[in-house]
Amino acid sequence: MGFHKAPNTYTGEVRIKVKDVKRSLAFYKEVIGFNVLNETEHTADLTADGKNVLLSIEQPPNIAPKQQGTAGLYHFALLLPDRSDLGRVLQHLVHLNIPLGASDHHVSEAIYLNDPDGNGIEIYSDRDASKWIWQGSQVAMTTETLDAQGVLAEAKGEPWHSLPENTVMGHVHLHVSSLKEAEAFYDQGLGFKTVARYGRQAMFMSTGGYHHHLGLNTWAGEGAPAPAPESAGLDWFTLIYPDADAVEQAVARLKNMGAKTFIEDGFVMTADPSGNRIRLTY
Predict the structure, then answer these.
(1) Cα(243)–Cα(191) distance, rounded to whole angstroms?
(2) 170 and 180 in contact (C-beta within 8 Å)?
(3) For a Cys-Cys bond, which of 86, 193, 274, 277 suits 176, CB 3.0-4.6 Å?
């Protein structure tokens, strides 16, 4: 998983707003397999390795159901270390009768589901990077039927317990109001490069030759508005830079573009043109 460490810039903790923190906590522990690192009456920090927070959930006051047809989270994606791990997760979710989607993207194999608030979740494993097909700066990605039986066979009947310790936040996929504006922001401001396009409505960006750390789409509609602040859904997601200088350089580029940055809870924050909030750290 060298694509999720320095010198690359990659995705880290995602924070979502939920209607019922106890309901969400039960789901993320029992269905997804997170462990709780910190917990209060209205928040919880969730981890796979007992040290690093991958997902934090919060139940703000006066929270409203997740709005449809807006910018925001399409899904966050948990990257597992191995295909056999994906097999055990799939075996577990099938046993629970959880509604699932599943796809083979050539670069990876993935299963999809929603949390109780409708927040999208992808759980996936990568194929070896030597098998990815590049044409210049663009990587070939497809959406084909997952070989579910082949994935399940990798589990060899071994029981599922929880997310593997080496699970990382593989990527974040966002609804945006304009691909052109989003691409300029994430490229010129935050340092990501476009590595794949899916028609005229979706694109994928990364650093360090990964197939994607960021997905962007207009499937909620061109010009989709930002959700209301009280809506359940994405609060912010984290981009992890190699060091403090890299964060400062990103801030300078954002300011040159006219994008705002600010400090919140001791971290540099910004928002893309669609209102998706981003924490910049190292």
Answers:
(1) 14
(2) no
(3) 274
Taking only the tens place, the pLDDT of each residue in 219-269 is 999 999 999 999 999 999 999 999 999 999 999 999 999 999 999 999 999
Burial class of residue 143 (count of CB atoms within 10 Å of its CB; 0-12, 13-18, 19+): exposed
β-partners of residue 132 are none
Strands 43-47 and 10-17: unpaired
Is residue 268 a contact partner of residue 251, using CB atoms and an 8 Å limit? yes
Judge contact between 242 and 282, C-beta under 8 A.
yes
User: What string of DSSP letters covers 8-73?
Assistant: S-EEEEEEEE-S-HHHHHHHIIIII--EEEEE-SSEEEEESSSSSEEEEEE--TT-BPPPSSSSEE
- Taking the C-alpha atoms of residue 60 and residue 62, their distance in angstroms, rounded to an integer, is 6
Residue in the structure block whose two tokens are 């969400």: 24
Q: For the chain, list the domains and their CATH numbers.
A: 2-281 (3.10.180.10)
Question: In terms of DSSP bridges, do strands 134-135 and 138-139 run parallel, antiparallel, or are they unpaired?
Answer: antiparallel
Total number of residues shown for the chain: 282
CA torsion 18-224-214-56 (nearest 10°) is -10
Are 56 and 119 within 8 A, CB to CB?
A: no
Query: What is the amino acid identity at position 234?
Result: L
Instruction: Measure the CA angle with vertex 51, ends 234 and 245; round to 5°.
Output: 70
Residue 167's nearest CA partner among 221, 126, 208, 111 is: 126
* Beta carbons within 8 Å of 188's beta carbon, 6+ residues apart: 253, 257
Q: What is the pLDDT of residues 142-192, one digit of tens each?
A: 999 999 999 999 999 999 999 999 999 999 999 999 999 999 999 999 999
**Whether the predicted pLDDT of 1 surpasses 80:** no
Query: 214 and 256 in contact (C-beta within 8 Å)?
Result: no
